[in-house]
Records
---
Amino acid sequence: MEDQHQTATKAICYHCGEDLPKVKYQTNDKDFCCAGCMAVFKILSENNLCNYYVYNNTPGRQLKNDSHLEYLDDPQIIDQLIDYKHENSSIITFYIPAIHCSSCIWLLEHLYKINAAIFSSRIDFLKKQVTIQFNHEEISLKHLVETLNQIGYEPLISLQDVVKAHSSSVDKALVLKIAVAGFLMGNVMLFSFPEYFGLSGLEKQFRYLFGWLNLTFSIPAAFYCGRDYFTSAITSIKHKHINLDTPLALIIAVLFLRTAFEVIFAMGPGFADTLTGLVFLLLMGKWLKQRTYHHISFDRDYRSYFPIAVTTLQNGKEKPVPINDVKIGDRLWIRNGELVPADAILMKGEAWVDMSFVTGESEPIHKVLGEIIYAGGRQTTEAIELEVIKPVSQSYLTGLWNNEHYKSNVEKKNFNDSVAKYFSIGVFLIAFAATGYWLFQQDSHKAWSAFTAVIIVACPCVLALSTPFTLSAILSVFDKKGFYVKNTDAVEELAKCNTVIFDKTGTLTSNENAEISFSGYLTNDEELIVASLLRNSTHPLSRHILKALNVERYYSLNDYKEVTGKGLSAKVNHHIVYAGHLSMLPVTVKPAGETGVHIVIDHTYKGCFNIKQQWRPGLRQLVSKLAKFELQVLSGDTDKDHSMLKTIFPETTTIGFHQRPHQKLDAVLRLQKSGKNVMMLGDGLNDAGALKQSNFGIALTDNINNFTPGCDAILQGSTLNLLPNFIRLSKDGLTVIKISFAIATAYNCIGIYYAVQGTLYPLVAAVLMPVSTVTIILFTTLATRWFARKNKLI
């Protein structure tokens, strides 16, 4: 009898929630539907990971033991799947369809407790991805996948890009819930028609039958279709905060309880029509939002929006091509400081690759001929020749840009975060106050109506949608004008900036049409030697001189060294050559002036390239438009342009020269400590630290691959003059969000005014709720376009 009673009370699997079979599995007084679920529980229990079950009840999925993973022992397949591999460390990204709740996130981020060979794991919940860094000497890829399978998270392994392959996929569970909710709503509406149009004597006899049918339809609507809202609300409360799903879960619960109460005690028809209609509308809104986010994600991951011109070698000649045109088999020429855009094999040169973009470790890794260099690596010495073995993945590079290793330490909080908590708490207080008032007046009917209508009419959907719709529309406008911002949060940071710091070389000056003269003498062979050295550098001055020398062939070199902001040196064709600032030269010379690029070959001073860079067109107008900002110029160059800068910038502008990278970083930190929100503009070569630390860092680029992971945005040099327009549009975007919030608040106040009086029927409130959401989305879209047109960006 005791066993039978236990079977009756424990009807579901402790791990996955499925119904228990007649022959069940049991351990630690827990019942399981299969050996797989029991095995997962044992693994979690042995590793002290049973908190997995605290975040959600029955969060697991059934374990399938039909996987055949022998193919994961094939080195060729491993090489195609792996993102990064060096010595004993590998990184791989899996698409895991079973990720569905907070328990999944918690468990997958604690994989290192299950196996010490797993260093770290990072989850992207929206894309259902997990990126795992592991020791491939201690755990093979096959064993890693088996470990994931054992805990119920079988990865869907494909040689295609997982994001691209599944970006168009539909959440089938959500679609099924929408279909069920639509079916239930239609039937409830049908049975509610007599109530809408008045009951005749014949119809009154069916009133109770229709009421019980509607209550029956309400059960799956509330507890199947609306289950996710309850799960989200309970999880948020467990974590001691209130999210935007909490009021919605309360609405569904109240409507169901009220319907059950009225039908069971024959007091009325209940609110099954409102309940099913509300759940259907909420799920449709959720589907629309999900599709919108997927569209935005897909658009920004796979559009070629990195303005990087990769240098390819075609018939021995260099030719820049767009990054998305790079194909398997192409030869790439990667200079010092440039990013490797695709997995490739080293064919020529000595590679010391900084993989901090991928791993967070800044120590350069030495690669020899024939070794693979992974996408995201940055060459730190001489230029190298690579052959592409994998196509460029825009989503992978986008993921690297958002890599947590490159997040600034500056505290960032968006508008939604600031108001969501107070909005939900305010709605609850008003709802309970209205209910208490009518209960005190001994009018329980109006108390129920007031409580239900207040929570429905003050639905937080507007809050959840207005910000992403507005900021995503702004990102689209920015993209079309050559201003590529990392994400929507960065747009809010842009709007808050009140201080602007400019680098000079490559930022205020143009990389095109510089006037170059040489004071000294170089033979034809010495010109080849100098060109062979400068060819390895991405610095604007090197590019100018190389263009002016216009040589047809180059020598190979050894011992290449480049000191940021100082110059470069190498051994070229058995000659030691130096090019750069006076302080780097190995000889004591007294040339006519300090400025320029000085050349020394075999300890003999050869002369100096004097480069008169052109100021970017429209620079004076740009500075005048930024007059409201506190402006600074920090240059690593000499002070030869000081007088010119004084005529361009206001008198209050701080202008500094001979600035080393750490000095620029210190300047940003000082301003932030004084309460300033700092925007930094640089070319990304010697100011990466300052760009990363600033509240909003912009890497300016013309036609070279100087992408900087620490920046918040990339700006094409030709559109620098539009910077004030971009700033104004970001500020206008925040204004649109605040106006939309004000409209929603006004709408809610009017709705609540009638709701608290108990005169607003809950079904009317349920209809008004999506109408307000559509109104706000329409307003944000039209307003953003209007402001974009006003700022001359469309």
Note: DSSP finds 28 helices and 28 strands in the chain.
---
Amino acid sequence: MIIATKLHIPQSRSELVVRSRLIHRLHEGLERTLTLITAPAGYGKTTLLGEWAMTLEKPVAWVSLDQGDNDRMRFWAHTIAALKQAYPSFNEQAVLRHAVEDPSGVSLIAALVNGLHRISQTTVLVWDDFHHIEEESILKGVTYLLERLPPHVHLYLASRNSPSLPLSRIRAGNGLNQLDTSDLRFAPDETIEFFAKCSYMELSSEDIAAVQKKTEGWAAAMRLAILSLHEHADPASLVWKMAGTERDISDYFFDEVLARQSATMQKFLLYTSILDRMKGELCQAVTGIAESHAFLQQLDEESLFLVALDERREWYRYHHLFRQFLTAQLKIREPKQWKTYHMAAGKWLKENGYPHEAVDHYLAAACYEQALSLVEEMTPELMDKEWTTLCTWLSAIPDSLLFTRPMMLLTKLASQYMSGHVEAATDGYWRTIRRLDEDTDPLPPEEAKTLHAGLAFLAAFRSFMDRDYEYAVQFSKEYVEKHPKGDFFIGFGSDGDGYHPVWDIYVSDDSLRLAEQVLPPLLSIWSETRNVLFVAHLYIDLGKMHYERNRLVDAEKVMRQAYDIGRLYDNRSLATIAALWLARIAAVQGDEETSNHILRELAQQTSKKPNPHLSGKIAWFRAMQGWMHGEEKPVKRWLRKCGLRFHDEIPVSMIKEYDLLVSVLAEQGKFEEAAPLIERLLFMARETGRQSDRIRLLVRKGRLLSLQGKVAECMDVLEEALALAWPEGYIRTFVDEGAPVGQLLDHYIRLRQNQHHRPSHKVPLSYVKRLRRLIPQVERKVGTPHEGTVVVLTAREQSVLRLMETGMSNKEIALKLNVSLATVKTHINNIYGKLQSKNRLQALERARTLQLF
């Protein structure tokens, strides 16, 4: 849920001292990656940044952070919303799609970097009150972003302390612009101007100098001094009494300010101090004061440490330091009653559509029953994206209460795991097991049964998501035995169209042999349960395995079952994934009519109910099919719309899209772009253990090398792919590439048969020949030499051609023939011309056809 007031640049009504030297320092940040402002509360960090932002002619993306932003999805969602609000051209949907596609969050940050690259103007992003952020996954994400931030993007960060970011590295690269307490202190001339603008009494230069000395230029203390001096009988004596630490000074002056308010205003200030943000109606519900809205306006007009959170000046918050003082006073003066104000706030917020904030107040008041009931209502929504928030709330509720609500205790364990607190989830799991075994405080039989079954469910899904598939089978069996309906947490964590992180975890991606072992028992266990969405996912996985093994009839059958489930339960994500596979199967069987019909239906469904994520999958599939069949239009259309570039950050969830980009770049002869991109993709596939991606990318790299004329290297890479694929029985990964890979396999087979290539990997030639037989022969095009064509090569050209056949590079051929490299290139170009070929592999293939060697 986006809170709009968090994206508003806070503004004050008070007349400000223009701090030109600091404004200049902040302008310098437009030449650096990061501007960091660190100082304790009350030094004017927010005020300074807000004032500076107003001096810019360009928009600023601003996020005011609080403790609740330690939820990774909430943090980045507000950041993305701020960027979209400030820069309308920013494509937030292209970034947000990765929120669920990659639970680690890395893909989202990678997509954010790409999105920032595509903003054409200077971009400023402000994170205010960053000291609230302690969640390690968020700090890692910010580090990742900082290390890859485009040159035109500048991050401004205000914090009470130095954040856990690689500041030394950024500073070493001259990317850090830093301001601290010593910079923010008011200089003597600024102090004089401050008192001249904000005070209506005359103080001597000595008195002002005393204020400067005793407050040490601390903005909050000086503002407090102004408020106290207004009505003090002897301003000079008050000034000279100022002494002590910042806390001493603030408490002293806050006492002065509070004491001068009416009794009703004092009550208003103290009671509303429990609120993170406030408006008139909320304040009235908490304080019982009918004039609450007028009181807020009065405080705003008097600039009494109140910050407006929106342009209409409807929502406000107190200055952090002032609020700390007020809440401390409230607990001292009303040690028992203050919780009732939290309860009143929670009730109003719940009834007026602010459930997130209501939960925080209920928890602060230790009203755990009310908090738990509200959290229970919100759980389906929170399971979509805000796992950390759910984890934080449920962790604040005593286990003794959660134990009586088994599903919420299970939800707590799930939220701990899904938010990255794996140790806490594991400890909680075993603690619950022990408590059930000890039976010292027994649950009713049905609730105990629910808890036992739920624990088995969580173990099964955790094993599956950790890719420990054998344990997933074991715990799935235990779960269904204890709860045959199998209807716990159906589709948990899914988005509005049914997408969930588990839908990108396929056993067949890791190992076809393992998929053949574990998918049948998993399907057997889950097929009788109500968790039909997981069953559909398993059908897709099984279909992928059958397809790769070239069992097309079996693949079509199980993909159809997955598609039917997706349609029946209106799960657009599963239905679309299954439909694309059905279109692919139809196409490779030669049924283009059925394939195109499926794609047209998908396009119509997406146009009626737009979904950028699913539209992107369909567009990619069309482009992939077009590329495989040599059709330029769908490929060009996809390239134009997707906006992918070879130097992008690559989200893990988009490996296949960037794989297609490599193919297109290679065909266009842009080898200097395609080569580094394929290496990055291969690294990612190895690091993430995606075996099927790795094999496909090695085949792609082999094709790229062949187009570059690097035949020997091409054969080595192709052999590596074959060595990985053979034990698993991969077929379609090679066959779907068509004639170009067929030519590579022909060349590999001849080299092996003629003993011109010594295998470095064990690959049976029978397997390679089987793959080759399944690839259709190349259809001859007009202008291609045929068997009757007479091609005359010179003796030297024939020598060069034979050496090309052995896989030698141009340089090696030059050394072998004792001629210059330029001479070899001339001979090769002549050969290409005579054989009407564009590259080495085509030339060799046509030379064999014409029996030139």
Note: The longest strand covers residues 153-159.
